[in-house]
Amino acid sequence: MKVLPHLLALLPLFFAASSDASPAEARGTCRHPIVRREWRRLGKLQQLDYIRAVKCLQAKPPLTSTSVAPGVGSRYDDLIVTHVQQTFTVHLVGHFLPWHRFMMAVYEKALRNECGYHGAQPYWDWTLDVPASKFLDSPLFHPIFGFGGNGPYLPTPTTTHPDYVIPGRSGGGCVASGPFKHMQVRLGPGDDLTGNPRCLHRDMSPYFAGRYLGTNVTSLVMSQPDYGWFYRTLDGDTNPDRSSIHGGGHYAVGGNRGEMGDLHVSPTDPLFYMHHTNLDRVWWSWQKKNLPARLADISGPINILDYDNLIGGNVTLDFPLTLGVNAADVTIGDMMDIRSDKLCYVYDQVYT
Ligand SMILES: *[C@@H]1O[C@H](CO)[C@@H](O)[C@H](O)[C@H]1NC(C)=O
Ligand SMILES: *[C@@H]1O[C@H](CO)[C@@H](O)[C@H](O)[C@H]1NC(C)=O
Ligand SMILES: [Cu+2]
After folding, report:
1. pLDDT in tens, 30-84
2. Which ligand is nearest to the CA of 206?
């Protein structure tokens, strides 16, 4: 009888520390932000409903004109097209994280508004799937309550990085199980938008996951003092061998032959959205460590890899972001607070 009141007293503290779902924190018209949860914390019916909604988007007609992208075949492909078109203007730049935050939110809205999905976009906390020995057993790769797993091993590591073999790559063929076993992939490889009908490929590397997706790397990213270094530490180097958590997720799933490892058409793999939503969660976790200062902290080059500002300057809050036909344009400033009117979501848990 003495223990119970103590436990009850601790309860609000626990929730305050582990969740930012309090509607009281919301501003403007965002009164009830939707709550993004880790995939394995969804119920089985929610998991199936999410997969259903993704397949629904893959069956809807595209908004993109075939004169722009002859290979476009579905509403799902619309975001792939815009990602391909902007590959060298939204990666390795300061607005990499705001642009992908925008992309995740627009995908989430499409699933909800066009395909009747009631939940929030889930995320993949890959720190739960390392060390390497655990990786292939991730619940994310489950054939029914997940996204399916690897492709069968193909020896020649061609396609996305012919010059660099991802160490530990173990697949390369068509995804052999799960809801995307028969997925019709059309766009790519690379920047080819003419349409190349094929299967979804995965070329998983547990070794790569073990090296980049553990809590040690995420902690290093989280410990950076300002946005510029935070972003660069999260993104790593262009050489896959000096990756960080961004490249880690891409190459651990895509290897050399999988779409996830393709700089242009990586959004082909539905796991792209699970991975990038977790990267967004890392950014929000970092912002939350010092609100409100970090709601305004943005920097990094406008131009690709121009960290020394030799070509142009840094991005600022009024810098414009576009997703083409998929949404009305926004600015970086619109993307800084996930609880704002234009975004209106929170995470069930953050990294500390
Ligand atoms: C994190 O741990 C992995 C696995 O032990 C290791 O390969 C990697 O080098 C570590 N990275 C950092 C930045 O500590
Ligand atoms: C651009 O941003 C970087 C950090 O990302 C910072 O070190 C540098 O001073 C900034 N450059 C200018 C001209 O403000
Ligand atoms: Cu991208």
Report:
1. 999 999 999 999 999 999 999 999 999 999 999 999 999 999 999 999 999 999 9
2. 1
Is 303 near ligand 2, meaning CB less than 6 Å away?
A: no
The predicted pLDDT at position 327 comes to 98
Report if residue 279 sits inside a domain: yes
- Is 297 among the domain residues? yes
Kindly state whether residue 352 falls inside one of the protein's structural domains. Answer: no
Which residues constitute the domain of residue 209?
3-347
Q: What is the CATH number of the domain that holds 72?
A: 1.10.1280.10
Closest C-alpha to ligand 1, atom 4: 211
Residue 17 predicted with pLDDT over 50: no
Pairing of strands 345-347, 34-36: parallel
Number of alpha carbons in the 13 Å side-chain half-sphere of residue 42: 25
Longest pairwise C-alpha distance within the chain: 72
Alpha carbon of residue 337 to chain centroid: 17
Confidence (pTM): 0.92
Test site for ligand 2: of 230, 298, 309, 317, most ligand atoms within 8 A of the Cβ: 309
Q: Number of folded domains in the chain?
A: 1
Residues 143-171 pLDDT 10s: 999 999 999 999 877 665 667 899 999 99
Per-residue tokens: 91: 């990666």
From atom 11 of ligand 1, which residue's Cα is the shortest distance away?
217
In a domain, 325, yes or no: yes
